[in-house]
Amino acid sequence: MSVLEGSWKHEYITSNGIRLHYVTQGEGPLMLMLHGFPEFWYSWRHLIPEFAKDFKVVALDLRGYNESDKPKEQSAYVMAEFIEDVKGVIQGLGYDKCVLVGHDWGGAIAWNFAYAYPEMLDKLIVLNIPHPAKFAEGFRTPQQLLRSSYIFFFQIPGLPELLLQAGDYQAIETALKGMAVNKNAFTNEDIEAYKDAASKRGALTATLNYYRNVTQQRVLSLDWSVLQVPTLMIWGEKDTALGKELTYGTEEYVKDFTIKYIPTSSHWVQQEQPQLVIQYMREFLTARN
């Protein structure tokens, strides 16, 4: 059986004018999961069955990724569109609110969605992505600029696509397994699944367009109010792309803020340390309910 098949179901939904793919399992309140780069819904494979015990879990392929639509225009990959994608999915599934879980780019979208539509969230959970105000501060430091240098490379037309494709998408394996503390977190089948998703027609350019529109993604803005949505941040401390210092002071921007550090994990925290992530999420979700 393919690693893409499991206890979940594959579905499609039209939201904000585009067709999005997702997998779903369970019934109950909605838990919506948003992945990062260079991933797809599969990055949540360890968490989906666990939280399906209590929620209708929906793990989305973001626009441009895997089986979701890939609009050709670069202008289609801006935060305002991502936010409306999420809103349309929640409403299209018949809900008025959810627990929103996001990692990496999915986390950046989750932060922005929480500010745009706080009334549509019960709770917010972000993994290895800083609050946008803290990211903006970090982006003004030499150490974070160095860690984020790949973003500048991604601005070059065409060349990043060629690099990512080279050697049967070796760069995908290097990004995932190469950065991981626990190399066994990614099996050969996992890596093949990620390569297959990246190799879908139009996917590489679509996913790189998230970075090519970075000035329009509100990740460099400093003007943020205090968020009222209860928020959990989980952070793998061995993240080579985003420094731990980006988490410091987040409580200034979130009224009800909880942070859990995982010292034995890289950026890919829910894949390297799924049991700890599940434990911290459960503790947060059951608190003050």
From TrEMBL:
SUPFAM superfamilies: alpha/beta-Hydrolases
AB hydrolase-1 domain mapped to chain residues: 29-270
The entry's keywords: Hydrolase
GO molecular function, one term: hydrolase activity
Classification via InterPro entries: AB_hydrolase_1, AB_hydrolase_fold, Epox_hydrolase-like
Keyword hit for Hydrolase: yes
Signal peptide: none
One Pfam family of this chain: Abhydrolase_1
Protein name per UniProt: Alpha/beta hydrolase
